[in-house]
TrEMBL record:
<feature type="transmembrane region" description="Helical">
    <location>
        <begin position="106"/>
        <end position="126"/>
    </location>
</feature>
<dbReference type="InterPro" id="IPR010390">
    <property type="entry name" value="ABC-2_transporter-like"/>
</dbReference>
<feature type="transmembrane region" description="Helical">
    <location>
        <begin position="167"/>
        <end position="186"/>
    </location>
</feature>
<keyword id="KW-0472">Membrane</keyword>
<keyword id="KW-1133">Transmembrane helix</keyword>
<feature type="transmembrane region" description="Helical">
    <location>
        <begin position="192"/>
        <end position="214"/>
    </location>
</feature>
<feature type="transmembrane region" description="Helical">
    <location>
        <begin position="226"/>
        <end position="244"/>
    </location>
</feature>
<feature type="transmembrane region" description="Helical">
    <location>
        <begin position="12"/>
        <end position="31"/>
    </location>
</feature>
<feature type="transmembrane region" description="Helical">
    <location>
        <begin position="132"/>
        <end position="155"/>
    </location>
</feature>
<dbReference type="Pfam" id="PF06182">
    <property type="entry name" value="ABC2_membrane_6"/>
</dbReference>
<keyword id="KW-0812">Transmembrane</keyword>
<protein>
    <submittedName>
        <fullName>ABC-2 family transporter protein</fullName>
    </submittedName>
</protein>
């Protein structure tokens, strides 16, 4: 329903186009300026760094749908009491949540595909080095989106145990973007920061697949990263399944 609301609101569609265009232009000029006096840094040359940054902007759009305007955020449903309908329907709330997220990601993927084709045509993003790189990147990207789905689900499930957690949500979203490599590739950070992030699921969402695409992670070394992504998917799936059961015990239907 939220993507449909966007499609029926032309100003929001045009705003998305302008925002993506401005973000892509800014990261292109930023990274080209940073590489004006050097050919390589952190194992990346200018083409790889610019390609990574542009792909990060596009990939961040997959789950960038604004649900707040449509009053469709979990925290809003909890505040208004409409979350009870998720538990009164014949469909389990976690299944409804999954179908809703799938619709969001398909809508966001349309934006990403259009932007990727355009950036590829103008030479801003380099094509995959080989079919094997493209295949491994596709698998890693799929696993990364699954990890991101469960991470964002944990953020939403947190709302069941807190009364006002807008600040906590903003902090968690910031941490997700920082530790996943949205703002900058993790290869530029200190070794201790990279080591710390390796114990968290965030870099499995975006940093790993984009590093495979630009060639910072070779195909031969990528299968270990794919295994780590798969492990995170399983662990987060089990954790969120348990949390959905606990969250359901906190929902009370009155007068109906």
């Amino acid at each position: 329903m939220t993507p449909r609301g966007e499609l029926l609101a032309p100003p929001r569609m045009s705003a998305t186009v302008v925002r993506l265009f401005v973000q892509i232009c800014l990261v292109i000029y930023l990274w080209r300026g940073l590489y004006a006096n050097t050919e390589s840094s952190a194992g990346l040359d200018e083409t790889q760094a610019v390609g990574y940054a542009v792909l990060a902007v596009l990939a961040n759009r997959i789950c960038g749908l604004d649900r707040q305007a449509g009053r469709d955020m979990v925290i809003q449903h909890l505040r208004f009491g409409t979350i009870v309908y998720w538990y009164l329907r014949p469909m389990k709330p976690q299944r409804y949540y999954a179908l809703r997220a799938l619709g969001d990601q398909l809508y966001g993927f349309g934006w990403v595909l259009a932007g990727y084709v355009l950036c590829l045509a103008v030479g801003v993003v380099p094509p995959p080095a080989s079919p094997s790189v493209a295949g491994v990147f596709a698998v890693s990207m799929l696993l990364g989106q699954l990890v991101l789905y469960y991470v964002m689900m944990l953020v939403d499930l947190l709302c069941f145990w807190t009364l006002r957690n807008e600040a906590a949500l903003l902090i968690l979203v910031f941490a997700q973007n920082l530790l996943s490599g949205v703002y900058a590739p993790l290869w530029y950070f200190p070794d201790w920061f990279i080591t710390l992030s390796s114990f968290l699921p965030f870099q499995a969402t975006l940093s790993v697949p984009l590093s495979i695409y630009v060639g910072r992670i070779e195909v031969a070394d990528a299968f270990g990263q794919l295994a780590v992504q798969a492990v995170w998917v399983v662990l987060l799936a089990l954790l969120t399944r348990r949390l959905w059961d606990l969250a359901g015990r906190r929902v009370v239907s009155q007068g109906g």
